[in-house]
Design brief:
eight-stranded antiparallel beta sheet, about 220 residues, mainly beta, Jelly Rolls, six-stranded antiparallel beta sheet
Length: about 220
């Protein structure tokens, strides 16, 4: 079976829980959280090393452009994830990842003497999708120290699948992550007013041009 480890600060000698249930932040001040699968729980994680991969579903309620991902990285103490392979697909169980490798930025959230939890973020570039259910897959995480690297289990509303030693296991608790980006929203009332004012000005200019042409012809 796949490997899953229990991480409990109280069960580890010298362990100290610094923050519990920290909420993931946004990768950009202007970007919105399009989907949120729950905060870092720092209890369980699934491996993200080598060909071991984890896939979680997420749902977009409207047409959106994804620009980044935040996820909970549970790692050997002080050894955060520096890059990860990722893919977003429209169908489940697309293993192994054939997407892109992204460099990550990390923010320490909580930890003990053996493990640390980091808010781990990466940019996807613009990925435009319509409303519907999609699947985020992470795999082949790397770190400077080569320690244990995993995806924090949050027990969120998503469904999760594990790829381990060439086999796929479905129906497992899902992980902590956010999908970041922008929706294709309806223009604000002020924007509509400017648009109509511009259209009106163009129309007036065309009418004056026609009248002037008519006078010259006469």
């Amino acid at each position: 079976m796949f490997k899953k480890y229990l991480v409990q600060a109280s069960a580890l000698a010298g362990g100290t829980m610094l923050v519990a249930g920290a909420v993931l932040g946004s990768t950009s001040a202007s970007a919105a959280v399009l989907y949120d699968n729950g905060p870092i729980a720092f209890a369980y994680f699934y491996y993200l090393q080598g060909t071991e991969a984890v896939q979680d579903s997420f749902t977009l309620t409207s047409a959106s452009t994804i620009t980044g991902v935040n996820f909970g990285g549970d790692v050997t103490a002080g050894d955060p994830i520096t890059s990860v392979d990722w893919a977003i697909s429209a169908t489940p169980d697309q293993f192994p990842v054939t997407g892109a490798t992204a460099a990550t930025t990390t923010t320490f959230v909580t930890g003990n003497s053996s493990y640390s939890a980091y808010e781990t973020s990466f940019s996807t570039g613009p990925v435009t999708l319509g409303p519907g259910t999609y699947y985020l897959t992470l795999q082949n995480a790397q770190s400077a120290g080569g320690g244990t690297l995993g995806w924090d289990v949050s027990y969120g509303p998503s469904s999760a699948s594990i790829y381990f030693q060439g086999s796929i296991y479905d129906g497992f608790p899902s992980e902590s992550f956010q999908i970041i980006g922008d929706t294709a929203g309806v223009p604000e009332p002020g924007t509509w007013a400017l648009m109509f004012a511009g259209i009106g000005a163009v129309g007036a200019t065309l009418r004056r041009a026609r009248r002037k042409q008519g006078l010259q012809t006469a």
